[in-house]
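Note to self: the last two entries modelled the partners one at a time, which told us nothing about the interface. This time every component goes in together.
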Amino acid sequence: MSAATDIHMREILIARIATMLDGCGHVAVGASSPIPGAAALLAQARSAGAMRVSVLGSTRHNFFTDGGRELFDCAAQGRIDAFFLSGGQIDGAGNINLVGIGDPAQPKVRFPGSFGSAYLAFLVPKVILFREEHTPRTLVERVDFISAPGTSDPDIYRPGGPRALVTGRAVFDFSPKRAGFTLRSVHPGETPESVTAQTGFRFDTPDAVPHTPLPDADTLALMRGDVARAVAETYPGFAEQLWGIGA
Amino acid sequence: MTGPATLDIADLGARIPDGAHLAIAPDYSGCAMAVIRTLLRRRIRGLRLVAVPTAGFQADMLIGAGCVAEIEAAAVSLGEYGPAGRFNAALRAGRIIMRDATCPAIHAGLQAAEKGIPFMPLRGIIGSDLVAQRPDWKLMDNPYAPQSRDPILLVPAITPEIALFHAPAADRNGNVFIGVRRELMLMAHAARRTLVSVERIVDTDFLADEARAGATIPALYVEAIAQAPRGSDPVGLFGAYGANEAALGAYAQASRDDGAFAAWLAGVDADVSQTVLA
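The predicted structure of the combined assembly is written out below.
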């Protein structure tokens, strides 16, 4: 099971995101986010009880008792350390678009809507942008609609914001000061050149860009065992497809 | 003291007039699907929906049947079943007005209504293009900021004319048990009128039991109740029964095609038994 060829790309993403969460006290996971959810549960499993994880849609991993608003109230108080956001489009300034393409009143393409992004992107210290599809269609020079801006003017209250972008091809760091991304690592099978060719925005590329590390044997065992079973509660289809286990 | 009226579901639905400003629950928290089907059969017109805070099957069905003039929502989607086909088609054709929001702005607007105040300030959002789309959202400087400028967003109170949802049980006095689904409590507090369908009406008093009372909407907020066993089918009801995945998948597919949706709606029209839609 330890040969690189036996490790699914999604397992590499889960393990890589989990390392970004190590040390967080409370990680929250929003709707339709099986890979971030699995990463959060993996990070929690090895936190020796130090990390809380709340997964929207889960019964077992959800300790809120004050309705849909509680997550947002918690975030505004600084009680949530990390959250995940995605976008139909993500641009090089860290802006995300969850609304659509074209005139919002009569769009050419409509995405579901902004959900809590316009709020949580400001208030959660470590926002990780995640989009598995990494193409010039999803990673664009400039989003058509800003659901949540990547950065804000200095007089805007903003303790949080995007810190990284993880895709099916690579990992980027985000610098709020520069309002731009830096290529941190490329996944197996990719090169900085191949990533550049599939990215619609400009980003900084250091001289040496390593490959995204593969999960070690202990991490894989944990992921494929306890974590997979925990993920299956909320994302049975995902867990079945990746690990062949039911809820 | 008179409690809420007890009606059958068609009469409960009949209390919702054309053009109503109607708050509906999210797919995960008590959708009054049986009542929605009575509205579909009636071809209710001109609804102004408020999603608390996101919309799914209920909204898409009503939009497809031409029942909706506008919708305020943080998102409209069929979740893991994919895009909300009728919503997307109606928006592209300019047949409905979408008032895009973000989840906490809807919660905050309802909280303002709950408190009987005109607006609520909340953090974040400034710099999102949502603000430009929402002339009713305003910026002010935090009057309590110690020194430097501190802009903050205000959203107006959202006071729905009617809140409609489904809950596990009502007691003999019309108190409605909602468990941990506090967004239903918020809806009932904020709306002028609240209509509820329930799985069953129990001959007891939930408020006499402290463990239950905290998870109960007092009858004072509730105008009328209808008993509707499996009334959240096919989206499912927390703690009671799950989603009918085959029915939801079939609907999701039908939502993406004019003819298939028309056939689905004809099925609703023909189904006078008000039972599960396959």
